[in-house]
Write a structure and sequence with these properties.
This protein has 472 residues and is of the alpha/beta class. 21% of the residues lie in helices and 23% in strands. The strands form five sheets. It has a six-stranded mixed β-sheet, with no helix packed on it.
Amino acid sequence: MKKAIKFTLLLSIAICVQLFFIAPIAKAEQKTYTDNEVNISKRDLIILLEKLSGNLGSDIADIGNYANADEEYVKSSIEKLKGLNIIDEHVSFANLYESPKKEEVYYLLAKYIGIEAAEGKTAFIDDEKLQSWSRGYIKELENLGVVEGKDKNFEPGKVLNRGELRDVIKELFLTIINTSQNFKADENNKSKAFIVVNTNDAVIENIKIQTPILINQKSSNGRLRIINSDISKIYIAAGSQNFEVQLSNSKLQSAKSLGKNISYTNLGPDGKVGPLPNPEEYKPEGGRSVKRIIKGSRSNGSSDSYFGSNNQKENKAQSDKETEEKVTPQNKDTVKPEEKKSTGKITENKKTQSEVLPKVNEGTPNEGEKNSAAENLSEDFIVLNEHLYADKTLKYKAVNGVILEDKALIGLKLSGENNGVKLNVKWEGESLNQVKNAQKGEYRLAVSSLEDLVINDKNYGKIKFIVKIIIE
């Protein structure tokens, strides 16, 4: 009798153990769908964008599941997307149950990600069938390696069914992170699809350089930590703000941000966190693309093509030599001040201000200021921020306003070298108010550092230099 009870007990334990191991496997099985032949609607596309943003629950591949989104919610979402310029005149949403064309689907997803249109033709055989407004975005997706066009037809006018849209999702998006978690890519991961981050507390590990990252608005007021990774590019969506991208034994090639107050830091092996130069890219109108990646000093170990690595070699001898020829530390009297001075009479331009740009204003202080701000104005330094262009000018859009921050990252104009630390600064000049009021024109302001500037163990003291500003 005892043996029978013992056998029954052991059998029960064995069955429980077996169920314990089988359950997770069953749970991990991929869903199967029976609606693959059903054509998608523009409503489905709006729901997909809301899911990508983390605003609606359920699996991203559940195309037919509207996640309790009623008509008003969908219409409200359309208006929001129009405000972000994701939906424009090229794709109409007057009829939500109309089926979008394949070209429209890729166009909207590309604009949602925030990529810029590339120039030239795609490698698709039927490239000539693409509309001019969509070709550039599909071309950029091809440049990123997300879509492959060689020896293939794109079929821009094709209507996708739900199964085909699921394939598009797999093609464009590697994973969607909606909750605080640690995402670690497989060692053999070769995906070039996007990682989408919808949480303000996430960790990403082991990402290869071909995998880009999209940070959405829901990540605001938070931080993304990137560990042991090489990141090709980060896109930060419009509406995102107060967000920190922190690198740990990682590199970031470039970034494009439509958000506000985005900072980049490096977590060193000693546990100390230090700032990094802004890696964002900008394209001046009519000009070439300019990368916001600058040479760094020992404090942040950046290079010409990457920044944020903890173990990069430095070569500063040549830049030091060139800099010494232009500026002598702690002896600013040897630097010649600007020869030109402004008359300070902006009223002469009032009549034509709406027709032509005002004249260049020198960065000399107002007469009421008693200091010697007009003396020792150097042109050997630059302010390094997201408005800096290749011609060493700060360019702003008048419609976006101009904010002259009290703290600035200052570097050598010749080489771009800096110490990665923002200093307290003071902006001066007769045209200061015009700049703050975002009046279109070209200006020259004086910038004074209120703290000593030290780059590569060289102390330049409290410097004062000229900054050229263009407001368009």
